[in-house]
Amino acid sequence: MSRRTILALSGAATAALALTAASLPWTIAAPRAVAFAERDLARRYGLGLSAAGPATLTLLPAPSLSFSRVRLRRGDHDLVESAGLQVQLGLAGLLAGRAEVTGLVLDRARIALPDDAAVDWAEPAARLAARVAAGRGRHLRRLVLVDATLSGRDPRTGSRETVTGLNLVASWPRPSAGLDLSAAFTWRGVPATLTVSGLRPPALAAGAETPLTAALTWVAGPGIDGPSAEGSAEIEGSLVWAGTTAANSPAANVPANEASAGPATDGPRLSGQGRFTTPALARTLAWLGVEPGPAALAGPVGVEGRFTARPVGVEWPEIRVRFGDNRLEGAGALALARGRLSVSGTLAAERLDLSGLLPDVEPGGGWSRAPLGLDALTRGDLDLRLSAASARLGSLEAQDVAAGLLVRDGTVEATLGRATVQGGTVKGRAALAALPSGLDARLQGSADRVDLGGLFADLGWPRWILGRGQGSAVLDTAGSSLADLVGRLGGRAVATVEGGEILGLNLADLAQRPDSAAVALRRGGRTHFERARVSLTVADGVAEIGQGQVRGGGLTASLGGRVFLAERRLGAEARIEPGPDGRPAGHFAIEGPWLRPVLRPLAARTLPALSLPAAASAYAP
């Protein structure tokens, strides 16, 4: 073997040994290594470093110092405790004998955000922002958290919240490149992931606009007893931090030559296109600690559109909302003042289904006794205006609907500005206020020229009366459940029907054959009338029929008695007046369920004379 070959092999072996040695961790004196790395951390970010375990130095593939049982602090306050810390160093600085921290890797770190976190973190954040904005010196190119725990206090409730299993990678390879971030974590038992890309730190730090793309996803949490949720939120737009610069803040305490281009600290402004979707809003809201709200929002929900977000709120000049099979478009805004959320919006839809807002009905057809309250609806303020070409509430259809919902100061007010129901116009208003033992409710409404036959068919009721009706009602009640509200209902109602007929009953034949009352409702007869009127006075869930009359075809019939709303039962009497042609009078009881009553003949007696109001409607079984 030639001497040249021997030298070449020796050089290669030496290089291999050197590379191997450089790739191996070298244990070094921990105090000196800590002091070496701390000098750069203190100069750039105002952070102190301490380590209780040994330190190791690795030169390849990149120079780094590794420590165990580490604390990062500012002054006397510990900001981070970590089982391990790797400080990645710049090679040029290392060769010059100084530390240039280019990356941090924290293993099993515990990051606590105490009540005065803003003060504790203000100086490190201000120093970092000022250096980035000034474009001076090397920047932190990489930050990695492995199985970290982040805890802080919820500003809404004051309770302690904890994020566990946080694995985060933030990469900013060079000043001209965008910052990319990806994180996976678990909060309240629900795993979630977050990605951010395109962010330009120098522009953001200088108060200029930077592009931003972000996506957050969360999936169903483990276990059936805890909260579970899934969904996603995506943003594509631009971010700017405007206001007083951090470099001018007293907490910044950075050199003057690095402070001239400091970032804004008054707050961010984010604008662009956003989208939020979840197949189960109720579970997502429960995960976030928000009451689920109306059953109408229990299914899939999506929100997307153009928005502008600031610390005090969000505006959507263009927004599209989907819940269930409903699709709405319009504009909206959200604001947060003194810890209270305020939402406003104007939305329109071609078709709207609000059946989920209907109260529950007991299996036997009675009124629900489930507790009622406004807590789920009054945790914030709401001013919502809705319009729809057509709308459905249960089996009831309406067209040209304009409605509003106002929530303020613990009260809820729902207004139906107008709606076309079976060719007629319906208007109404319901005002609810919270009581210590339930709700106080005040209701009022009116209807004009509504086709009663079509309305009864929509509601699934027997079509026993035809004609166009009009009327009005003013009612009030209080109680802790729907059954309570009905049982304590009070107020007045009047109605009238013009040019109609009663189906299934011939009053003239009934007057001549009172013994046929038991089967009269099943014979298929008809009674035409010119006008039918009724007025009701309601107290404690019982409607007293004060004035009721049917006139037409030479026949007059009077109605009196009661409607028991809580039991859905009738206890009324009807009298057919004798006709001028010698037709006999008839006197009958109308009893039983209000949708399926029975007739029973009574001994003849005289009912009080009736003085009818100008507006009322007929009643018949």
Automatic annotation (TrEMBL):
Listed under GO biological process in this entry are: regulation of protein targeting to membrane
Q: Where is the composition biased (Low complexity)?
A: 249-261
Tell me where the signal peptide lies: none
Location of the region described as Disordered in the Swiss-Prot/TrEMBL record? 249-275
Transmembrane portions of the chain: none
Q: Which InterPro entries match?
A: AsmA (IPR007844), AsmA-related (IPR052894), TAT_signal (IPR006311)
Cite a GO CC annotation: plasma membrane
- Domain AsmA: where? 367-544
Spell out the protein name for this chain.
Answer: AsmA domain-containing protein
The gene designation is asmA
